[in-house]
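Following up on my earlier message about magnesium ion. Here are the inputs again, as you asked, copied directly from the submission form:
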Amino acid sequence: MHLNIAILGGDGIGPEVIAQAVKCMQAVEENFGHDFTFTEGLIGASAMDKMGSPIPKETLELCRASDAILFGAIGTPEYDNNPDAKVRPEDGLLYLRKELDLFTNMRPIKVFRALLNNSPIKKEVIAGTDLVIYRELTSGIYFGEKSLSEDGTVATDLCRYTEKEIGRIAHMAFKAAKKRRGKLTLVDKAHVLETSRLWRKVVTNIAESYPEIEFDCMYIDNASMLMTLNPTCFDVILTSNMFGDILSAQCNVLIGSSGLLPSASVGTENAMFEPIHGSYPQAKGKDIANPVAAILSAALLLNHFGLTEEFDAVVAAVHKSFRKKIVTMDIMGSTKYGTESVGDFIAQNIVDVDDNLNINDENIGLGRSTII
Ligand code: IPM
Ligand code: MG
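Thanks, got it. Here's what our run produced:
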C-alpha cells in the first residue's frame, strides 16, 4: 500500500518519540512490502519560533494533502506559565483538529500484562482492563466562544453542542461497541449541564437503533471514581471533549505510565494519530522519553488503513520489549535503555510472522490477536 504521511513532531519530546514511530513504520514498510512517504511539517511553539504561527499554512496544506498525520506533542513551559499570551502552541493542534473536522477521538486503554506491577492501583483491580474512550474532539467547551473582561477579572468559556455533533460520534461509538463486548457508557454531567442533557437525549434515541448494545449513562464524577475502583466495568465510553481529555489522562495512571497510550482522531476526510501524553519539556533531548505511545499511535494508523497484520506485528514487538525489559526509565528506574534504543529494539522486532515463522519464534501466537 502507498501512503503519504505527514509527520508533525511538534514540541518537547514530540520529535524524538515520533522519530521512533517513523522507524517502526519503515520496518513495517520493509517487512510487509509497503511504500510510505513521510513529509515533515512544523506545528506548535517550534512553528511559532520559525514561522510566526503555531500552524503555518504550509503545514495545513501538507496535512490536507496527506493520507494521514502522525503527531507528537505540543506545548512549552514559556507559554504554560504565561496566561497573557495571545497565541499559544496548543492553538495549532486545536485548529488542526477543527479545520480537518477530526471529530472522533479514540483512546484505547488495555492494561499490558507485563506491566501490571507498574500501576499504582492494585493489580487485581486493573487486570483485564480493556476499554476505549470515544472523545468528541471538535466542539464543546474547547471551541465555544471565550471572553475576558476588560479589567481582566471575569472570564467565560462557552460549552456548546449541537444534536448533529453528538449524533455523528455516537454512531461511531455504537458501531465500535458492536465489534467489542457490546457495552456503551455515556459519560456526562446531566444533572447539572444543559449540554449533557442534550447528549443524553440524543444518545438515548440513537441507542434504540442498536438494541444489541447494553447502554447506560454515568456522571463524570462517578465514572472517574469507577475508573480507579473497577475499570473492567467499562467497554466503550462515549463522552464530550473536556470529560474525555480528563478521563483518558486518568487512564495513563491505571496502566502505569503516561508514555504508553496512543490515540486516533478521525473525521470523514482525514485522520491523525497521536500519543495521549504531553510534550514533557523536562525530558526533551535527554533520550529518556518513552516512545511506546507514539509507536502504538503509528500502529493505530496502520490499523485505520486495514493493515491489521502490520498492526498486530507492531503491538507484538512492543509486548516483546516489555517482556525483555527493554524499556525506558518511566517503566523501570534502573534501565539502561533510552528512547532510541527502545525504538530500535521494537523496530527490529517487527516481523511478518508468515515470513518469519522459524526466525522469530517469540512472536508466534502473539501476533494474531488484537492486543490494544
Ligand atoms: C490531549 C491534550 C490536548 C487536549 C492539549 C495539548 C490541547 O491534553 O490531546 O489530551 O486537551 O486535547
Ligand atoms: Mg489531555
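One observation from looking it over: Residues 357-372 have pLDDT under 50 and may be disordered. Hope that helps, and feel free to reply on this thread.
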